[in-house]
Amino acid sequence: MSALLSIKGVTAYYGAIAALKGVDVDVAEGEIVTLIGANGAGKSTLMMTIFGQPRARDGLITFDGHDITRTPTHEIARLKIAQSPEGRRIFGRMTVVENLQMGAAVTKFAHYDEDLARIFAIFPRLKERAGQRGGTLSGGEQQMLAIGRALMSRPRLLMLDEPSLGLAPLIAKQIFSVVEELNRTERLTVFLVEQNAYHALRLAHRGYVMVNGRITMSGGGRELLERPEVRAAYLEGGR
């Protein structure tokens, strides 16, 4: 399988501090690939670097064979890459529908009615809350809205940054089930950053482990779940 997203030797800095230190990651079309690691390992920085904030200092980022290492952020969004960011970052004063319209703006509302109906079918709770302000939704509903907004742009690659963060286990499980179903039925390519290593690696075709800005391990999702060093570092304590 050829890589839809390819990251080769990427470094990124915050001032003089190296946050990414020669990172290599590939995501093939139709795959779910997960990146796990402790808080502060650099996972979210990698997500943001793909979108150019911060900009990669060294290395190469390609999407569908095109070099996007220096491409402006707003142009990257038009390339059919969508992100549901850490902390959701929905528009709290806007209604659910207005938030979804923001996602549809990338496609110039070409399939708006069809796409809105699709999101409401995927997340029936959002249909119930259609006229409600985003800031009044529960954490789980806000996460559904963040993912729904990303899906409204009809992405080829969906990037999810900590989708289970702060959610009750049952709600987190529902979110992961939706991701798995989208991948299975629509072959949606997903790049997932998660601290919940157990659920993330069970879901993923392949996974990477990041420690202090470096990739230290990679392999099949289930394979990584069975590695003693992964279990000791990320799975002890009943996850």
TrEMBL record:
It comes from the Bacteria. The keyword Nucleotide-binding applies. The keyword Iron does not apply. GO terms for molecular function: ATP binding; ATP hydrolysis activity; branched-chain amino acid transmembrane transporter activity. Transmembrane segments: none annotated. Pfam families: ABC_tran. Belongs to the ABC transporter superfamily. SUPFAM superfamilies: P-loop containing nucleoside triphosphate hydrolases. Residues 5-237 form the ABC transporter domain. Keywords: Amino-acid transport, ATP-binding, Nucleotide-binding, Transport. SMART domains: AAA. GO terms for biological process: L-amino acid transport. This is ABC transporter ATP-binding protein.
